[in-house]
Amino acid sequence: MTKKITFLGIETSCDETAAAVIRENGGGTADVLSNVVSSQIKEHEKFGGVVPELAARAHLENIDYIINSALIKSKISLKEIDGIAATAGPGLIVCLTIGLNIGKSIAAFSRKPFIGVNHLEGHALSPGLENKLEFPYLLLLISGGHTQFLIVKDIGHYQQLGTTIDDALGEAFDKTAKMLNLGYPGGPKVEKFSKLGDKNFFKLPEPIINKAGCNLSFAGLKTAVLRETRKINGNDKAKYNLAASFQNTINKILYKKTKVAVKMFKDSTQCKKVKLVVAGGVAANKSIRENLNNLSKDMNFETIYPNIKFCGDNAAMIAWVGIQKYKKKLFDNLKIKAKSRWPLDKTAPYMKGPGLKL
Ligand SMILES: Nc1ncnc2c1ncn2[C@@H]1O[C@H](COP(=O)(O)OP(=O)(O)OP(=O)(O)O)[C@@H](O)[C@H]1O
Ligand SMILES: [Mg+2]
């Protein structure tokens, strides 16, 4: 019988302090033995966004307790763990350093292998915790800091097909919620209040929709929301109509651009059966899931989503990358440093800033 690998994962890249213990289950997925996430919503709510210094302080205060809780809940002792994985980037350096250093320390004193994980690879592989995934697949990564279409060829092998040229999708949701005064964190609030509004009430722009393959842009949409917000003067019904129209416009953009990405994926991989994995915090949005499921029926491909609890930041997805890399003997030494920027496809052109030709 082959040994089932068990990993401790640690995540502190932004405003969630998280630790998890997971074990391979022999069927190509994992048993999540514990998954502890301490969210800092209360700390950042009054500022309407993440304040790096406050986030770092909260990680420092909570990290020992969170790791200990994850170990106790899992009923696994440190001795039985095969390795430790901690997020090494991308994210806020002051936050990443806390989880990364404690992960390295645990690995050093317990003499276990250490793996520094790319947070985006955590999102990319997260549906694999519960679904047996085969490479290659098309990934739509929609999170607070990233919005990308990628071909996932293997662990560590990614080809970017398209990306946002300005705001990330999560950021666009958060800013819309802030403009409309719907509360924090923004994405779930926009989704909630959209249900009370008329999604066809406002006609909003779909930037670069007919240009540039499957690249995306949300800045012009955000400006249009701001313009309408000023006109509606806090009227609740109008606010809900605007939230619903914003979300509906996002869905139209994602529908059209995913259609292009699926074609690009087919051309590049020659795969007949396309699997679209949608991951990251925004993948929790049910109307986006419904919209992409409709496209999948129209184009005859399969959609795979992570469990809602693995969409936002968590350490189970970090431990899962750890296990995959352990099996390929892709270990890191303890000199590994936190990185604020760490693209999955290092060869992809940087798509932000003035002078961009589309
Ligand atoms: N139901 C929802 N609808 C829309 N957006 C959502 C929903 N739930 C969460 N989000 C958004 O997801 C984002 C958080 O996702 P995530 O935690 O993956 O981002 P991050 O870790 O900050 O960024 P990254 O993963 O790019 O480094 C936030 O912008 C949040 O508003
Ligand atoms: Mg994230």
Structure description:
With 358 residues, this protein is an alpha/beta fold. It has two domains: 6-129 and 310-327, Nucleotidyltransferase, domain 5, CATH 3.30.420.40; 137-305, ATPase, nucleotide binding domain (Nucleotidyltransferase, domain 5). It has ten helices and ten strands. The strands form two sheets. The protein has a five-stranded mixed beta sheet, sandwiched between helices. Strands 8-7-6-9-10 form a five-stranded mixed beta sheet, with helices on both faces. Residues 14, 91, 119, 123, 143-146, 170, 173-174, 185-188, 191, 280-282, 284-285, 312-313 line the site of adenosine-5'-triphosphate (ATP).
How many structural domains does the protein architecture include?
Answer: 2
Mean pLDDT, to the nearest integer, reads 95
CATH class of the largest domain: Alpha Beta
User: Multimeric state of these chains?
Assistant: single chain
Helix and strand content put the structural class at alpha/beta
Fraction of residues in β-strands: 15-25%
Order of helices and strands: EEEHHEHEHEEEHHHHEHEH
Q: In percent, how helical is the residue content?
A: 40-55%
Under CATH, the topology of the largest domain can be stated as Nucleotidyltransferase, domain 5
The CATH architecture of the largest domain is: 2-Layer Sandwich
Bound molecules: adenosine-5'-triphosphate, magnesium ion
Tell me, what's the shape? globular
Count of extended strands: 10
